[in-house]
UniProtKB/TrEMBL annotation:
GO molecular function ontology, one term from the record: phosphorelay sensor kinase activity
Species name: Pontiella desulfatans
Highest taxon of the lineage: Bacteria
Pfam families recorded: HTH_18, Response_reg
Gene name of the encoded protein: phoP_1
Name listed for the protein in its UniProt record: Alkaline phosphatase synthesis transcriptional regulatory protein PhoP
Length: 260
C-alpha cells in the first residue's frame, strides 16, 4: 500500500501487526511518503520497485523476517544504501547483535516512543543527506585537481562512472544507453542516482563529461574543440555553454588561467 505525499522522502514500513502498521503510517505520513507491507517478502518487493529513502521493519514477521529482509536489502547493490530501522518486541541482546550484523542502522524495542522513533528516522535521513553531499563534494573537488578523485562509496555509482568514462567520447551515449549497459531500467537508475548524488542520470553523465573536460583543459595538450570531441560534444559552442554552466567560467578562461 502506498500513501503519497508530494515532494517528500519515502519511508517503507514493514510490519505484520495491522494496528501498529496503521499507527506508524498515521504518525509518519505528515512528514514522509509512506509505503506499507505486511511481511518481509512484500517489503523486499516494494523496496526493489520504489527504492525508498528508509525502511522500518519488525524483526518477527511471517514469510520473511526483518533480519532476512535487512540482509537482502544490504546484499543488493540497488538497495544497499537504504537505512534500516529494526523493531522488536523482545529486548534481547542476541537479536540486536544479529540485526546489526546484517547491516541494520538502528534498533528500537517495542513498546517505543513515537517522538523518539521520529527523531531517529530524521537523524538517519539527515545522515544520508550529508553522505550524499560529501560524495558529490568529493567528486567535484577531485575534478578541480589534476589527479582523479577517490571513487564513490557506492559500487553501483562507481560502475556507472566507469561505463560513462568508457564511452566518454560517444555523444550518443545517454541515459537509456547507460541503463541498458548496467542491466537496469531507466526509472531504477534515476532513483538510485538521485538518492546518492542528488542528480538525474542526465545531469550525472554531464557532470562526468565536464570533470574530464576540466582535467584535459588543465593539461593544455588539446585545443578546446579537441577537448569537446574527447568528452562527447560534437558542437564546441554547446560544450562551452555547458562548461560555463557547471564551473562558472568558460573553457578559454580556464585555459588562460592555467597559462598565467
Amino acid at each position: 500500500m502506498k500513501k503519497h505525499k508530494e515532494h517528500s522522502e519515502q519511508v517503507l514500513v514493514v510490519e505484520d501487526n495491522p494496528d501498529l502498521r496503521m499507527v506508524l503510517e498515521t504518525e509518519l505520513e505528515d512528514d514522509y511518503e509512506i509505503l506499507t507491507a505486511s511481511n518481509g517478502r512484500e517489503g523486499l518487493e516494494l523496496a526493489l520497485l520504489h527504492l525508498p529513502d528508509l525502511v522500518i521493519a519488525d524483526i518477527m514477521m511471517p514469510v520473511m523476517s526483518g533480519i532476512e529482509l535487512c540482509s537482502a536489502l544490504k546484499g543488493n547493490e540497488l538497495t544497499n544504501h537504504i537505512p534500516v530501522v529494526m523493531l522488536t518486541a523482545r529486548d534481547k541482546e542476541s537479536e540486536q547483535v544479529e540485526g546489526l550484523e546484517v547491516g541494520a542502522n538502528d534498533y528500537i524495542t517495542k513498546p517505543f516512543s513515537i517522538p523518539i522513533l521520529k527523531m531517529r528516522v530524521n537523524n538517519l535521513l539527515e545522515s544520508r543527506r550529508n553522505f550524499r553531499e560529501r560524495m558529490m563534494r568529493q567528486w567535484r573537488d577531485g575534478g578541480l585537481r589534476e589527479t582523479s578523485p577517490a571513487p564513490f562509496e557506492d559500487p553501483l555509482v562507481n560502475r556507472a562512472v566507469e561505463l560513462i568514462l568508457q564511452h566518454i567520447d560517444d555523444s550518443a551515449f545517454g541515459v537509456e544507453e547507460l541503463a541498458q549497459t548496467m542491466n537496469l531500467n531507466s526509472r531504477t537508475l534515476q532513483r538510485k542516482l538521485k538518492v546518492l548524488t542528488d542528480q538525474t542520470p542526465r545531469e550525472f553523465i554531464r557532470s562526468i563529461r565536464m570533470r574530464e573536460a576540466h582535467l584535459l583543459l588543465r593539461t593544455g595538450e588539446l585545443s578546446i574543440s579537441e577537448v569537446a570531441f574527447q568528452v562527447g560534444y560534437r558542437e564546441p559552442t554547446h560544450f562551452s555553454r555547458s562548461f560555463k554552466q557547471v564551473f562558472g567560467i568558460s573553457p578559454s578562461q580556464l585555459r588562460d588561467r592555467g597559462q598565467e
